[in-house]
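Can't paste images in this forum, so I'm doing it all in text. The chain is below; anyone willing to post the predicted structure tokens underneath?
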Amino acid sequence: MLLRNILLVATATTAALAAGLFYGWSCSIVVGLSKLPDANYIQTMQAFNRAILNPVFFLTFMGTVFLLPLCTYSQFNGWQSPRFLFLLAASACYLIGVFGVTVVGNVPMNNTLEAFQLQGASAEAIAAQRLQFEQPWNTLNHIRTIAATISVILITLACLSPARD
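Text version of the structure:
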């Protein structure tokens, strides 16, 4: 029982941290970045995309990918269990709406942006690169924000639901 509760709290914490990261980007960072000139925008996003690849981010982001399904499994007590069903829905939401969108959408876009060489690029090429990247990436980040937030709400509801015997 204690181990399942520790797992539930760890899962809730990593999911909430991930949701907060995406939320912070959606409501403040992309707003500030939108005001930058094209070359500065690309240079800054390239720097952000390099900086985010760190152990703390991976522990939070990937920790949720592993902890949430494990936590869901640990709470299984039949298909009628509200706690299990909330966690199952949270798992689907996070794995598809956060992890899936990141892997299929944001990461390939980040890799394309990283390969773009600002040095020697024309103003038109820089503007075109930004146009190709900014709005689609922001849209995907908003999707991740919504999915991560829904996951946290579902995990919270699971925490408030009766535990299995």
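The chain is about 85% helix and 0% strand. Residues 98 and 144 are 5 Å apart (CA to CA).
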